[in-house]
Amino acid sequence: MDTGQQETSRGQPGRPNPGFAEFVTITALMMGVTAFAVDGILPAFPILGRDFDVADPNRLQLVVYVYMLGFGFAQLIYGPASDVFGRRRAYLAGLGIFLLGCVLSLFATDLNTLLAARFVQGIGAASGRVLSVAIVRDRFAGREMARVMSINMGIFITVPIFAPAIGSVILLASGRQGLFVAMLLAGLALGFWFLRRMPETLAPEHKMPFSAARILRAMGTVATNRITVGYATAVGLMFGCVMAMVGSSQQIFTETFGLGHLFPLAFALVASAQGVAAIVNSALVGRFGMRRISHLSVVVLTTLGLLQLIFAWSFDGRPPLLLFGLILACSQFLLGLAFPNFNALAMEPLGRVAGTGSSLVGVYTTVMGSLCGLAIGAAFDGTVLPITAGYLALTIAALAVILVTERGRLFGAHHSAAPGGSPPTGGT
Question: Rounded distance, CA 277 to CA 254, Å?
């Protein structure tokens, strides 16, 4: 068991006590299962349009946007609720709402009913995003927290990228209802595992009695912490790069480069770089620290973005596919190094208000990243210039934010707060 673990979660007979690997797997799946519901339904759009007699195909996009709307704003609820009632109760309540949304989606007979069901699904799914982060923050600090967060955020980023391919397989085997059955079964299995093996990670002395004024003060603590706000902004900007790639990749690979049915393969090859980055980061962060890895990643990413834009411009926005794909994969790898470390750095100072902090950081970064990605995607003109320019702009902005947050110092190790706001335990 790691030395950063809460004392309250060990040494008590009959209490669940997962090992490191099991703990990481459960918290990663808390993100992964609900993240699949974002993009896993995309291959079903033609079937939904036919079954529900949708005249305007653009309305089908609401199946994703309504889900994200519920997902985004519900994050404001779960963090404060978990600080009052505990992480387990808050997560299981949210998972129950997600499962209800799966059932309602399964039996939807028209698009409006499905949209309402997806909104319910999104509200429930937010619990996994918020509370997996809070649970990790309760148990670990510093570089060990970053190691776990790297794996979890890698899952959160990677699952939606591969979800369309998985969804296509399910559709071929069992139709659109099979997608919601798969989500339902995955949620039930995860809920049973969580209930049996995950202890309450919030120490009793850190629970906050319900008080609107206290919750508002906790929100104020989060919103006025320079490190948290700065790194949360950097997370949002990096997430904007990810969303831009997800949103524009189909048009880029099929229209600009004419790959046609080979698009899923190209997409998977580029996306796999993020999974590799998660593994590399979890192995290196204990030695080099969150700041050193994430700061260096953004500096290199900015330089690479400038080179990518120059190459794209010199080829009138249509560079050779191999060159573009290689640079894009390298960019995704660097994003995979920066993203989880920024998220961990944003959470680290929050201690006993980690639940509220996770909520606010989640809402802030989700909304910012989605808007940035949408703006870049909307600028698609048949070339790769919009996405390359967008990547460069976002990475420059992230680098500037980090410089302000760290008062002009990059790569430095700070002392980290131990779980629950305990004395420092090491450098980050």
Answer: 26
Q: How many CA atoms lie within 13 A of 329 on its CB side?
A: 15
Q: CA-CA distance, 329 to 306, in Å (whole number)?
A: 15
Q: Helix, strand, coil proportions of the chain in percent (round to 5)?
A: 80, 0, 15
- In a domain, residue 218? The reply is yes
Domain for residue 5, yes or no? no
Residue 422 φ/ψ, nearest 5 degrees: -75, 175
pLDDT, position 12? 55
Query: Looking at residue 427, what is its pLDDT?
Result: 54
pTM over 0.85: no
Q: Which H or E run contains 415?
A: strand 415-418
Question: Which residues sit opposite 418 in a β-bridge?
Answer: 422
Q: What angle do CA 364, 368, 371 make, to 5 degrees?
A: 145
Residue 107 lies in a domain: yes
What are the mean pLDDT values of the chain's consecutive 10-residue runs (428 residues total)?
Answer: 41 71 91 84 81 76 78 84 90 97 95 95 92 88 79 72 82 91 96 94 80 78 89 92 77 82 77 82 84 93 94 92 92 90 86 74 83 80 92 95 88 53 47
3-class SS of residue 217? helix
Could you report the per-residue pLDDT of 348-403, keeping only the tens digit for each? 888 767 767 777 888 888 888 878 887 887 787 889 999 999 999 999 999 999 99
Q: Which two tokens mark 361?
A: 């950081």
**Residue showing tokens 């560079």:** 319
Distances in Å between the alpha carbon of 63 and those of 38, 55, 57, 98? 9, 15, 11, 15
| Sign of the dihedral defined by the CA atoms of residues 237, 242, 245, 248, in that order | negative
Angle of CA points 422, 357, 163, to nearest 5°: 120
What is the C-alpha to C-alpha distance for residues 390 and 302, in angstroms, rounded to an integer?
11
Number of domains making up the chain: 1
Interval 18-50: pLDDT, tens: 888 899 999 999 988 888 888 788 778 778 888
Domain span holding position 374: 15-427
Q: Which amino acid is at 136?
A: V
Q: What span, in angstroms and rounded, lies between the C-alpha atoms of 185 and 86? A: 25
Do the Cβ atoms of 345 and 155 come closer than 8 Å?
A: no
2 occurs within a structural domain: no
The 3-class secondary structure across 159-177, one letter per residue, is HHHHHHHHHHHHHHHHHHH
Residues with Cβ within 8 Å of 26's Cβ and at least 6 positions away in sequence, in order, are 18, 190, 193, 194, 197, 198
Q: How many CB atoms are located within 10 Å of the residue 295 CB?
A: 23
